[in-house]
Amino acid sequence: MIFKSNLRSGPADASDLQKDSLIQFQHRHYFLLAVIFGIICPAIIPGVFWGDWSGGIYFSATLRLTIAHHVTHWLGSSPYDDELSPRDHLLSAILTMGEGYHNFHHQFPMDYRNAFHWYQYDPTKWFIALCAMLGLASHLRVFPENEIRKGMYTMKLKELKQMQDTIRWAPRAASLPVVTWEQFQQESRAGDRILVLISGFIHDVTSFVDLHPGGRRLIVSSSGKDMSSAFFGGVYSHSNAAHNLLSMYRVGVLLGGMETISEPSKAIPPSERLVIARKDADEVERKEQKSY
């Protein structure tokens, strides 16, 4: 840390590091070594070999450090956690010798790797692994793979949840009026709407009549009828897309209509059989109390 802070990370047993003479040398002379190898050497080399002293200072030293410290926090994605700013990206990994997979590093700091997948550009990881193979390094620590994949899974669910929230879904059954068979027949005979019964739901398919691939006549002749068996393969086995679209035309629930379905799960559109739901602590506690 360059500046003092009131934040404290807590105690850690670093007795093994305190006994390592090389690490202690680096610790005692950190700022001097940082200036020599981070600024002076990158600036001198272009000046000595190519006579470009200003380029060495501005590009090899200053710009390089700026990119290395900032690109890892704004370029790329957050595949493991998005609570903090570090991100993963191949370009920043190339520019920073593997540090570009910064999201992984901050989420799993005990892991000797910067990149989880073997093919991701992380020369530091490969160098340490090679040293371990040659007996020059030992006790390489890795975070449990199950927990790493759990973080990946969580972030993918969050992304899918955001997409899910932008989609318009079929109306919930609880929000629809409950209609008797007699009312359903009366509305169908009125002639201003084409209503069909499928899976216990009444559907107003008036706007779909001229779009139906099977023709207008099939839809019109089905008004006021229970077409569940025909829709589920009796006449034609409709696609998942057809099931999803049909659910958007729901306008009511037939009183006792669900009893006519041999498989109640068919009333659920394929697109809604896997739904991402957010749980909070209060909800979990309520469900646990009900289970007792």
Description:
This protein folds into 2 domains: 31-148, no CATH class; 174-277, Roll (Flavocytochrome B2, Chain A, domain 1). Helices cover 45% and strands 5% of the residues. The chain has helices at 15-18, 21-28, 30-50, 53-70, 90-95, 102-107, 123-133, 145-164, 181-189, 216-221, 228-231, 240-247, 281-291; strands at 178-179, 195-198, 201-204, 250-254. A hairpin with a 2-residue loop joins strand 2 and strand 3. Helix 3 (30-50) packs across helix 4. Belongs to the cytochrome b5 family. One of its GO terms (molecular function) is heme binding.
Write the layout of secondary structure elements.
Blueprint: H1 15-18, H2 21-28, H3 30-50, H4 53-70, H5 90-95, H6 102-107, H7 123-133, H8 145-164, E1 178-179, H9 181-189, E2 195-198, E3 201-204, H10 216-221, H11 228-231, H12 240-247, E4 250-254, H13 281-291
Parallel strand pairs: 1-4
Antiparallel strand pairs: 2-3, 3-4
Keywords: Fatty acid biosynthesis, Fatty acid metabolism, Heme, Iron, Lipid biosynthesis, Lipid metabolism, Membrane, Metal-binding, Oxidoreductase, Transmembrane, Transmembrane helix
Subcellular location: Membrane
GO molecular function: heme binding; iron ion binding; stearoyl-CoA 9-desaturase activity
